[in-house]
Design brief:
The chain is an all-alpha fold. The protein has helices at residues 2-11, 22-91, 96-128, 137-143, 146-162, 166-192, 197-222, 233-249, 256-265, 267-280, 285-304, 307-344, 352-368, 371-376, 381-406, 408-434.
Amino acid sequence: MWVTARTVKLFRIQPMSQAINLEALSNRLAAALAIRAGSIAATVGAGIVLARALGVEQFGSYNYAVAIAALVALPLTSGTPQLITRLVATYRGSQGALLAGLTQTAGHVALWGGVLAAFFTAAIVVAVGEAGNLEPMPTFLAAVVLIPVNALAAARAAELTGFGHVVEAQMSRLLVAPAVLLSLSAVLWWWSGQLDSTTAILLRAAGVGCALVVAMLRLRQARPPSMQREYRSRDWLRSAAPLALLGGLQIVTTSTDKLMLGILDGPASVGIYSPAVQGSALVIVVLNVLNSTISPNIVRLHTSGDRKALQQLATWTARRALVAGLPAALLMATAGEPLLRWFYGAPYGAGAGALAILAIAQLANAGLGSVGLLLTMTGHEHDAARGVFVVAVFNVAANLVLIPPFGVTGAAIATASSLILWNVLLAVKVRRRLGVDSSFLGLHPGQTGNLS
């Protein structure tokens, strides 16, 4: 009885503060979950089609090239969009001139920063060639197209989120792009009976391009009428710099494993490893949906200084993410091999060990809650960047040590340990800076920290 009562008490949340409109939040969450379900179906479906159509070697080259493009674009796609969301949510009420200046600047930075990064990436691909296992080279050259397109799509989706159109932003970013990729790749494979990694990259770029168009059409309705623009470029740059650094460092949990596998063990290992990464991401589906939904609430509660409501929101998020992720993590840890063989094909069953390791780490990620989001949405991006820098160094070293002897499993161990370390470090920062326990425990809210 003690265990049962304690468990019930742990996962029971007190009535939400009136500062949080739980009904509106739940409605947005339901819509976001529906979009995420469609996104998962399209993303996994596209992965299965490409894995079977390309074979292990070319599927590995495809994922290796996507990882390189993601690495280059991360400062533009992972950190800066959070600043855009935060500033749009702040300016939209009564600072229209600043809002107009911000949105124009964000578009220019995404476009021209992406084009410049693509140019230098193409030069490096040509220079490195076979030495970096960058074969077939047309695949890696085609992948540079993803850099500016991804940057623009992320910036416009972030702007939509800041305007409060969370569902529309998620639809453009999470549903349209993978759905287009799935449709085009399935049709082309059925029509021609063959598909190569270069074509797959171009189909992916087409999907992201369609997502960008959808976001732009919705923004035409969301933006206020044109007015004189005001710029605070220096302030924005000062805030963007640590976020860009944070975004670049977040490669430790997204692409370092694939990059180093490609370099140290070849594209075939990347091909086997990629379905494991994709499968483990299902554990944090609800956490990702919640994060994308609660961003404006975090900004508003922090601005008003309502620490109690912020703690309630953090606990509410972490508990639901953990409960939702637990069944998926258990399934992948116990039945990973038959799942991989059934969906992706017999050769991909070799990634079952990696899938189990990554799924357990993602479950810990869910239980520790929205650590990075809480820091970046409240102006503490410097703390997040410092924490992730430590983990980035650890992750590179761990992959370097573990991949040569253990291959795919070594990459999974390195990534899983880095992910857990990253969450623990940032959870400590959240408690110190905000006086909030980000985890599902929700212990001693508001005892330390300063919301100012």
